[in-house]
């Protein structure tokens, strides 16, 4: 009797936040003897090939890569916001996403979010949908695993009648029924639970988003063009929340214990954090491993998209200066060192090194502070080295999950969208602090230093560390999230 390997098609945008969970799950699928096909936009072949090599010798065959024709989501967003005359930041994100929050900014960010929900014009979306449908027809998969944020992928799967499930790095709350009287709405920056006096405004933002989306002339034009030229109905991530797809299953990279206290929808299956296996630091960068062993470390990594201007970098430097000076004078306090991955916004004028040397010059020269633009070792391997006391990050889902898996308390400087959720969540769970509540999404030295010190020393710090270790232990007990996601031989979800 011939054994037929299940044929799985992974379908995702090229953006790392989403693509990383697809790479991790692909590796787990290979090791479960599945025939894995990976469809995304051109330029991701090397990343997919590395997963195949990592899964070899256990994998029967490497991943088959399929390039999707058309604009990437980033390319579509760039073009979309330019046509709409929307100001941008960090290269292509709408400026409203990273501006200090107030009523007008939140409203603008909601409008801009609706704008990029399907960041293509009609012909561009038709090209991508047609390309994905052709790949589905060619591969004839037993199951398609679709990026929950990939409008073109959702549309193509529905049009092709493919058997599919969704995979997301995000929270259970993302796919739960909206409850604006309890949970902060997108870009509101409100605390959880929403204070009673802010509930009317939070409800207003929710209703405003519905009105903007439903009345969008651009959405209507794209919808009509798609229907006229392909016969497809536009499907977006909003359809996942409103349960438009009967019996759809959504795998998420979390557990109920790592999320807000929200009822898990029947369609959502929490797998646990989905991350790729990471080699120990010593096997990747021996010098960094030796440096980490010198003492307790604060690891600062604001993600691949976030670029910091000189003024904001200086605020972090000043916060570190305060933390150093305070802890160095306290009996029994740790003598911390800092690994800081920093990418600057290109600016004219004074070199950033001059700023840092005014504030941290001695510590940089003494190698107590390492400021780098690239780290060869994987963030998870650094966090799991046993030497990191605190992870400072931007509030991305992957960064949150990596710190949870390592049992490391977090200080979050949220930058946009659901990053604000994770800044609230670490406080709800007692595993970290929101480092910029008063000025988000920017930060200031006094507030950041206060939150850093709360995580690094004292009774609160000990409590956060204990709770972080408890969650890490829970994740180990439940099993590897990528492996649980890889158990999807049918749409009943992982066992």
From TrEMBL:
Residues annotated as transmembrane: 194-214
UniProt-recorded Gene Ontology molecular function terms: UDP-glucosyltransferase activity
Lineage: superkingdom: Eukaryota
Presence of the UniProt keyword Nuclease in the record: no
Domain Erythromycin biosynthesis protein CIII-like C-terminal: 367-461
Record keywords: Membrane, Transferase, Transmembrane, Transmembrane helix
InterPro entries: EryCIII-like_C, UDP-glycosyltransf_plant, UDP_glucos_trans
UniProt-recorded name of the protein: Erythromycin biosynthesis protein CIII-like C-terminal domain-containing protein
Source species: Ophiocordyceps sinensis
Lineage, uppermost ranks: Eukaryota, Fungi, Dikarya, Ascomycota, Pezizomycotina
